[in-house]
Amino acid sequence: MPEEDEIQSILSKRNELLIHIEKLETSYNSGQVSKTDYEVIRNRYEKKLKEVDKSLGTTKSGSVRGKGRRAAPPPHARSARQRSSSVGLVVLIIIAVAVVAVLYLFVGKGYTPTGTELNQTAPDFALTGIDGDSFSLGSYRDNVVVLDFMATWCGPCITEMGHLKQLYTDYRNQGVVIMSIDVDPSQSNETIRQFKTSYGDNWIFASGSDAGSTYGATYIPTIYIINKQGQVAYKNTGVTEYATLAAEINKLL
C-alpha cells in the first residue's frame, strides 16, 4: 500500500490547481482577463486537474492491490474491501474540506493578494533557479528588479521575452536584474531551460508557482518593477513594451 504522503502529495497538487482556477475566475469576473485567455488557461488547468484526479484514482486502486500481496491481516481486521472503502471515504472527506476551504478563502472572504499595489513592499521569496543556483528577491536590494511572472506555453509571454531581451542587453550593466518566474507547477526545469534558450537570455529563470500566488499573478505575463528600496514601483498585466519598461526603470536609476 503506498505511503500516506503519496496521497497527500497528490491532494496538495490538486488543491493548488483549484486555487489557480479560483484566482482565474476572480480575475475574469473583474475584467482583468479576456474571454479568450480565460478559456485557454481554464482548459489547461482543468486538463491537469483531470490528470491529477486520474492519478488519485490509480493510487487508491493500487493501494488495494498492494494490500492483497501482503501477509494476511489479524483475525479481527477488516476485509481489504472495507479498508479500501474507508481509505476512499477519508480521501473524499479531505478533498471536500479542501474545496470548502478554498471557496471560503477566495470567494467567501474575498482574495486580497499582497505586494500587488504600487508603493507596497514587494513580498520576499527564495527560489532555486533552473541551473541549481538559489536566490531570493531580498538579496537584490539596491538593484532595480524586473519581476516577470510567465509560463512557457503562454503566447503573450513569448512576446514579452523579446522586450525583456532588449532590456537585458541595454541595462544589465546598470544594476537592473530580471527574474522570469514560471507560475505553472507542471513545468519542469528542463522545459523552462529550453524556453530560455529559445526566447530569453542570461537572466534568472526559475519555477515558482508559490511566488506567483503570493503576488496574485493569475493573468500572465504580469510585470513588476521593484525599486532599490524593495517597493513596487510599477505593475502591468499583459505584454509590456520595451519603451515602457525602459521609461519606468530610468525613473529609478
Describe this structure in words.
This protein is an alpha/beta fold. It has two domains: 4-108, no CATH class; 126-250, Glutaredoxin (3-Layer(aba) Sandwich). Helices cover 53% and strands 14% of the residues. It has seven helices and seven strands, in the order H-H-H-E-E-E-H-E-H-E-H-E-E-H. It has helices at 4-29, 35-68, 80-108, 155-171, 189-199, 209-215, 242-250, and strands spanning 126-128, 134-136, 144-150, 176-182, 204-207, 222-226, 232-237. The strands form two sheets. The protein has a five-stranded mixed β-sheet, with helices on both faces. Strand 3 (144-150), helix 4 (155-171) and strand 4 (176-182) form a beta-alpha-beta unit. Helix 1 packs antiparallel against helix 2 (35-68), helix 1 (4-29) runs parallel beside helix 3 (80-108) and helix 2 runs antiparallel to helix 3 (80-108). It is globular and about 60 Å long.
Task: Kindly summarize this structure in a few lines.
This protein is an alpha/beta fold and 253 residues long.
